[in-house]
Q: What sequence folds into this?
């Protein structure tokens, strides 16, 4: 089921009206699911700025809300009257009446990324299609043509984005008007709007709108020597990547410290700012990131100990520290000086998503908590009071969002509305309801008033059902990693992940390190399901660290627990193999060892010309 709440001016909640939800008491407890169609369920949801898209169990994609420039991909757009072609703001537009996006591919959609005016879908084979407005090149088709707002623009007529020869995407992310793809070789390519360096290519020139700008001509982001990306997330005008080893690097706009570098200087819009010159974000001593999410002017990262840290702008409490202080824009605000977000006594974070000016997290008890700006009820608390900007508002004092019977399975946030997929795979949305973005066939804002949430918030209707398929995600971590070393080779073995993420594992990625912090990729993709690997050309007599992660159609999964092993010293170079039959000591008092068997050891010293023992040399 899918439930949405918040602003609903354009029907983005999908409830057949324009009433906001979640800004009044009792609205969340009674929040109805979005009508996705008879028996239809959702396995993925992506709220855009004023519209929403859901990936359904039959592998189809449906979108609703504002459709000014073809962002819904249904071959129409708004006329002169605002809302003329918005979908989800009027009765009879959702459920079985809601047209699926025509993508005409035999491969199901794995994930989505929505900008202000456009949509992109990544398929399980790693190919990408985009539609909507392209005034900054955000569609990646080397032109300024809008697609999806007219007949015959979708389906087979909508090309795949050219990512480069032989390259495929493992994940995609989007900001206000730029899109980034994490590719199968661990590189990152971005296109679209670039006034602040959010593309990370050392200038402020848009890419994707002119001939010859995509494919092999689109340079990958320089992440540094030996560095590759394992996850990416775009904020409004900035982009962040988790690198091999768990370090984080961010680039783009930094006027409010959203890059977390202790200053307000943009990165990526000038030469010499990327690569090894781009510092990693200081997350604290020994801490690494396992997931990251960029908001409008803030960034949140879930760390390896399942705690949460956020930095950037916190005018409405989006950082969750009980104040409105910006963090990351001045020295000594990051690292150990940046506290963890208090989500409750004993609670840890499973997933985090940063909205425009609010943030949400799923906790280890399956509860969903949101904090920050709540002008349209996007926090789902039945009022419009911001949370996290004052003392005593976080931790156990911050209530979980009431979604009714059932637990949150996954969710995504957006500018002024929030959607959640429940454990029954139905969707609910709340917040600003303009353009029908909530999907309730009106423009009512939900979640800002009493009795609007929980069981009073309906499910989004998405259409007829033909069966339910498992949600596609990334594999769990491999377990039981073992290592057998020699002097220059380590043989690794492991147990396959218990959960493949709903898509078959096609290979494994192996990272190695000599200090447990600075990692390089030893094997980008093994290309086989075999759970053993030989890592060669290693330094002898050295401690090595290894991590293994499964790869499926969506991307690289969670990394295993680090395995530490030391290679042996090996045989010193320059020695002569002795035949164990006769050994003669040529010194005057020497003796002859005769008829030695191959299993009979005889220890002796080796002397130099001066008769002194040769340092460090001996034999058995």
A:
């Amino acid at each position: 089921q899918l439930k949405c709440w918040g602003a609903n001016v354009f029907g983005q909640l999908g409830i057949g009206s324009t009433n906001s939800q979640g800004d009044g008491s009792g609205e969340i407890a009674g929040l109805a699911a979005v009508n996705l169609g008879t028996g239809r369920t959702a396995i993925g949801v992506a709220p855009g700025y004023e519209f929403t898209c859901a990936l359904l169990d039959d592998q189809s994609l449906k979108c609703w809300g504002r459709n000014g420039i073809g962002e819904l991909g249904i071959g129409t757009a708004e006329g002169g009257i605002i809302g003329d072609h918005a979908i989800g703001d009027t009765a009879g537009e959702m459920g079985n009446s809601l047209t699926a996006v025509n993508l005409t591919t035999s491969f199901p959609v794995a994930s989505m990324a929505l900008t202000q005016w456009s949509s992109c879908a990544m398929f399980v084979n790693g190919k990408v299609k985009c539609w909507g407005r392209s005034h900054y090149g955000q569609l990646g088709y080397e032109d300024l043509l809008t697609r999806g707002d007219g007949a015959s623009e979708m389906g087979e007529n909508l090309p795949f984005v050219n990512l480069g020869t032989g390259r495929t995407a493992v994940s995609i992310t989007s900001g206000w008007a730029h899109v980034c793809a994490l590719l199968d070789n661990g590189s990152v390519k971005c296109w679209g709007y670039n006034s602040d360096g959010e593309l990370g290519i050392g200038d402020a020139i848009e890419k994707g709108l002119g001939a010859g700008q995509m494919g092999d001509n689109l340079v990958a982001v320089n992440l540094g020597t030996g560095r590759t990306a394992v996850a990416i997330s775009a904020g409004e005008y900035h982009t962040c990547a988790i690198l091999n080893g768990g370090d984080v690097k961010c680039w783009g706009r930094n006027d409010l410290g959203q890059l977390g570098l202790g200053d307000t200087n943009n990165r990526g819009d000038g030469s010499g700012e990327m690569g090894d010159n781009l510092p990693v974000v200081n997350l604290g001593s020994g801490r690494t990131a396992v997931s990251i999410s960029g908001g409008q002017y803030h960034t949140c990262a879930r760390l390896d100990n399942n705690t949460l840290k956020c930095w950037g702008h916190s005018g409405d409490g989006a950082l969750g520290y009980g104040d409105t202080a910006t963090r990351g824009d001045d020295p000594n605000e990051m690292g150990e000086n940046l506290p963890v977000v208090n989500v409750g006594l004993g609670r840890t974070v499973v997933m985090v998503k940063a909205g425009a000016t609010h943030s949400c997290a799923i906790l280890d008890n399956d509860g969903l908590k949101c904090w920050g700006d709540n002008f349209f009820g996007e926090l789902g608390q039945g009022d419009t009071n911001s949370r996290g900007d004052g003392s005593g508002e976080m931790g156990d004092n911050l209530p979980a969002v009431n979604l009714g019977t059932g637990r949150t399975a996954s969710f995504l946030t957006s500018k002024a509305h929030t959607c959640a997929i429940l454990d029954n795979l139905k969707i609910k949305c709340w917040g600003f309801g303009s353009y029908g973005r909530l999907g309730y066939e009106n423009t009512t804002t939900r979640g800002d008033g009493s009795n609007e949430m929980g069981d009073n918030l309906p499910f989004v209707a998405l259409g007829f059902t033909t069966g339910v398929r498992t949600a596609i995600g990334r594999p769990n971590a491999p377990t039981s990693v073992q290592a057998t070393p020699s002097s220059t080779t380590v043989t690794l073995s492991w147990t396959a992940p218990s959960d493949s993420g709903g898509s078959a594992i096609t290979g494994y990625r192996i990272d190695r390190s000599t200090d447990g912090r600075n990692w390089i990729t030893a094997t980008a993709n093994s290309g086989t399901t075999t759970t053993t690997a030989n890592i060669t050309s290693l330094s002898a007599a050295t401690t090595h660290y290894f991590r293994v992660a499964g790869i499926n159609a969506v991307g690289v999964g969670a990394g295993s627990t680090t395995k530490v092993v030391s290679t042996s010293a090996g045989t010193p170079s320059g020695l002569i193999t002795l035949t164990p039959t006769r050994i003669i000591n040529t010194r005057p008092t020497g003796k002859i060892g005769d008829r030695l068997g191959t299993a009979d050891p005889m220890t002796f010293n080796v002397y130099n010309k001066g008769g002194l023992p040769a340092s460090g040399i001996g034999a058995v």
User: Anything to note?
Assistant: Confidence is low (pLDDT under 50) at residues 465-471, 616-620. DSSP finds no helices and 36 strands in the chain. The longest strand covers residues 2-29.
